[in-house]
Amino acid sequence: MPQETVEMPIPGKIISVAVAVGQGVDEGDVLCILESMKMENPILCPVKGAIKEVKVAAGQFVSSGAVGFIIDC
User: Fold this and answer.
1) For residues 73 and 30, what is the distance between their CA atoms, to the nearest angstrom?
2) Which end of the chain is more exposed for a tag (fewer CB within 10 A), N or C?
3) What is the pTM of this model?
4) Low-confidence ranges of the chain (pLDDT < 70)
């Protein structure tokens, strides 16, 4: 099954995670909220599929390019 890896586009702190493993998602759904430079940035799902792995948690600091989610397409 093809997979899509969702990386964090900017460094910051994860404020909330909106999905769980096994959950179905559509393109454009919010996966998490990332706070960077005092702005809350939604990280959106790039494809339709199901969440295989969630690699971030609320309160965690992430760097640019860090893998946040793996999605089965």
Assistant:
1) 16
2) N
3) 0.95
4) none
